[in-house]
Specification:
Elements: H1 6-21, H2 35-51, H3 56-71, H4 86-96, H5 108-126, H6 133-155, H7 159-175, E1 176-178, H8 180-184, H9 190-206, H10 210-221, H11 230-251, H12 256-279, H13 282-290, H14 292-344, H15 350-369, H16 376-390, E2 399-401, H17 409-436, H18 441-465, H19 477-502, H20 505-538
Parallel strand pairs: 1-2
Helix pairs in contact: 1-7, 2-20, 3-4, 3-6, 4-5, 5-6, 5-11, 6-10, 7-9, 7-12, 9-12, 10-11, 12-14, 12-16, 13-14, 14-15, 14-16, 14-18, 15-18, 17-18, 17-19, 18-19
Length: about 550
């Protein structure tokens, strides 16, 4: 009979504890919001989802960030008391918006959230660099994003996700070996290797972004982070700018992509292990663990379920990202295009406006249609990988981080020249097509931006579709040519998309003119319905 590894036994015990934690606490008071007010708020939040679309697992935290920043309007923090009452309003607003289910979050969580807010206010007030110039503003925003991650973790603890991260981390530490020459050349310190593995596991397994990883790294480096003493918190506050800069350097390390590539390749096995432990009856699970042939059946079922869910998420991501681009980017650019056309040509034809709408839509539809599901042999590779991970083995697979191959000046020049030539061909062809169809120069430029944004969004969606793939993709000649031609356009789309995150006029409009009044309106509905309910109860 195959013997489970110690790490697997530990993981199972954590999942058993997680399942027990799901049972409601008897006699504990939970937070309730008015159903009508909740429906109104949820409708608005759905619109906001389209306006500033992010990947689904980031939407909840994005809402916390937005609502938290709205409450921290005073950058000097002069008007924020040391122990304010910000938490209750924040939590109620999040439940009304549908980000957390009604009647499930304990009332005691409000004080926990308030403690978190107080902690970050204390850090901001006592950090000498937090208000200085542009870097101070970046630090301020980053710290609020980390605070949002901690608030989300407090309201809905990610016990099973963190258990799976620790499981994969413990196994990858044994399997990933760094070439000695990397240490000798001081490209990476030995004590940094485990940190890079920890970061890569989070990025690969659950696609965590920088703020969530930063929060987890703070807990990794400072085990007392969630509940520091006053002296510990003051020491952190005084040095927080350097701590934050160090974490940024860890996340953006030049070898981080190599660690990520290994973790990304093998994350499917760990995701399916998590699915099996989450979904199975514990008694039935014991039988399957003892019999690898039964476990194989569970793996196939979990793989089939996750593949179906992945297809739905890819389609949903394509629709929402396209709608987001239409509302936040294309709407802005069409207005700009109308103004430019008025200046240069005097009018804008309906054909041009129709092209503005159809081209991005058809391009995204084409990109989604070309998404390939994993091949049939992929599931067999996944099963083999899970068996190697799940059970104790005498020999372990080793994945080596090697020194990047040094390219000569001639090689770098040829590669750069090839990239530039590919960019010229791609952008030149797009320009020629629109010019041939009689589009004015302003419309051509704007349509190139449209195409770049959609191509970048489509590329991200296609990458997500490979989430379950372990097998190597050879690509072929056509893939090689398409990479040369499309990468420069997707690169422009990425650059434009990042710029829009900072200067999203539509999102800024919602934040400045709609968010606050709408929040007050929803709160008024809830209080008014409470008042009516009290009056009805007085009638006997």
């Amino acid at each position: 009979m195959a013997e489970l590894s110690e790490q697997t036994k530990h993981l199972i015990s954590k999942y058993i504890f997680w399942k027990k934690s799901l049972k409601p606490t008897e006699g504990a008071s939970t937070i309730h919001v008015d159903e009508v007010a909740s429906k109104v708020a949820a409708f608005y939040e759905h619109i906001r989802t389209i306006v500033d679309w992010k990947e689904e697992h980031l939407m909840k935290r994005a809402a916390i960030i937005r609502k938290l920043k709205r409450r921290f309007l005073d950058l000097e923090l002069n008007n924020i008391p040391a122990e304010g009452g910000m938490a209750e309003a924040l939590v109620l607003e999040l439940i009304r918006g549908g980000y957390f289910p009604n009647d499930t979050i304990l009332e005691s969580k409000i004080q926990e959230v308030q403690n978190i807010i107080d902690k970050y206010v204390f850090i901001l007030k006592n950090n000498p660099e937090s208000k200085k110039g542009k870097s101070g503003l970046r630090f301020y925003n980053s710290l609020l994003e980390i605070a949002s991650s901690e608030i989300e973790e407090t309201l809905t603890p990610s016990m099973k996700e963190m258990a799976l991260i620790e499981y994969m981390f413990s196994l990858m530490k044994e399997r990933i070996k760094v070439s000695e020459i990397i240490y000798q050349k001081d490209l990476l310190k030995k004590e940094e290797a485990n940190l890079q593995i920890y970061i890569a596991v989070q990025q690969a397994l659950f696609k965590f972004d920088d703020p969530i990883i930063s929060y987890n790294l703070l807990k990794y480096k400072f085990p007392y982070w969630d509940n520091p003493s006053q002296a510990e918190l003051l020491a952190i506050a005084k040095n927080m700018q350097n701590i934050w800069a160090g974490i940024e350097a860890d996340i953006s390390h030049k070898l981080s992509k190599k660690f990520y590539a290994i973790c990304e390749k093998y994350d499917t096995a760990y995701l399916l292990i998590g699915d099996i432990l989450s979904g199975e009856n514990l008694e039935k699970l014991d039988e399957q663990i003892d019999d690898p042939s039964l476990l194989e059946g569970s793996i196939r079922n979990a793989y089939k379920t996750r593949l179906k869910d992945l297809k739905a998420r890819v389609t949903r991501a394509a629709i929402y990202s396209t709608l987001s681009i239409f509302i936040t980017k294309i709407l802005s650019l069409v207005l700009l295009e109308l103004i430019l056309a008025k200046i240069f040509t005097g009018n804008l034809s309906w054909a041009t406006l129709l092209a503005d709408v159809l081209i991005p839509t058809l391009l995204m539809a084409t990109l989604v249609a070309t998404v390939k599901p994993p091949s049939k042999k992929n599931i067999n590779m996944v099963i083999v990988e899970i068996m190697k991970i799940f059970y104790q083995k005498e020999t372990l697979d080793v994945y080596e981080i090697k020194l990047p191959r040094k390219r000569s000046f001639v090689t770098r020049f040829i590669l750069s020249l090839t990239y530039v030539i590919g960019a010229c061909i791609s952008f030149g062809f797009i320009y020629w097509i629109f010019s041939y169809l009689g589009f004015p120069i302003s419309s051509i430029i704007i349509n190139i931006i449209f195409i770049a944004l959609i191509l970048f969004a489509g590329t991200v969606v296609q990458k997500r579709s490979q989430e379950l793939t372990i097998e190597e993709d050879s690509g072929g000649f056509l893939m090689f040519v398409s990479d040369i031609l499309f990468l420069p356009i997707a690169g422009l789309g990425q650059w434009m998309s990042n710029k829009w995150k900072r200067y999203n006029a539509i999102a800024a409009f919602f934040n400045a003119l709609i968010d606050m009044p709408f929040s007050v309106f929803v709160e008024f509905i809830e209080r008014w319905r409470g008042f009516i309910k009290d009056k009805k109860e007085e009638l006997r």
